[in-house]
From TrEMBL:
A Gene Ontology BP annotation from the UniProt entry: endoplasmic reticulum unfolded protein response
Signal peptide positions on this chain: 1-27
Main subcellular location of this protein, as a coarse class: cytoplasm
Originating organism: Volvox africanus
Official protein name in the record: Ubiquitin thioesterase OTU
Length: 203
């Protein structure tokens, strides 16, 4: 990747930050997703190019929760939280996600083979501030923040979407975009919002 400047709000200009994504205004609620609103295939029609700025997220075991909380903040208010506020928001999001897991146990168990016997222990583990979040938590986070979440990775030098959670919300709420690098999540800020949100370092 190109050289990076700044401690928390970063801008990269290389091609991998230019992505071709579906136009949310034409998305059909629940269109290509499964029963949990997860879509692994972005719709081929009505695609547009979107440029992102990369905002680094601390790698403390809570990067997924931090990135989602910060993304929701920036999408809603147009500016970033301080690192201290981000940490608190991430913990609050984690707790809300665990509550959703417990509330939607019957809904989610079929998608997690073998978890039924240890579900309570799983929820206790996930309550640990340092526990890594996974796909079940991503799905529950959509219910909490009421925004779709799209995960990208870099493929052949280009930014490519892997999966969208909560695709039934496309068209009604701005998605939160995350960059997955194999063992860590960072936040992708849409270029239009970057002028006000992306440039706001921890305050």
């Amino acid at each position: 990747m190109a050289p990076i400047r700044g401690p928390s709000s970063l801008s990269l200009s290389f091609p991998s930050l230019l992505a071709c994504v579906a136009n949310s205004s034409s998305a059909t609620p629940g269109g290509s997703g499964d029963a949990m609103g997860v879509s692994h295939q972005p719709p081929p029609q009505s695609q547009q190019q979107v440029r992102f700025r990369l905002r680094r997220i601390s790698g403390d075991g809570a990067c997924m929760f931090r990135a989602i909380a910060q993304g929701a903040q920036m999408a809603t208010h147009g500016k970033a939280m301080s690192l201290e506020s981000e940490e608190v928001a991430a913990l609050n999001l984690r707790q809300a996600v665990v509550r959703e897991l417990r509330r939607r146990r019957e809904e989610i168990e079929p998608f997690l083979p073998g978890i039924a016997a240890d579900f309570d222990e799983y929820c206790r583990t996930m309550s640990n501030p340092m526990a890594w979040g996974g796909e079940p938590e991503m799905v529950m986070a959509v219910h909490v923040v009421q925004r779709p979440i799209t995960v990208y990775h870099v493929e052949d030098g280009q930014l490519a979407p892997i999966v969208t959670y909560g695709d039934q919300l496309l068209g009604s709420a701005q998605p939160i975009s995350l960059l997955w690098s194999g063992a860590h999540y960072d936040l992708l800020v849409p270029e239009l919002a970057a002028g006000t949100a992306g440039g706001a370092a921890a305050a």
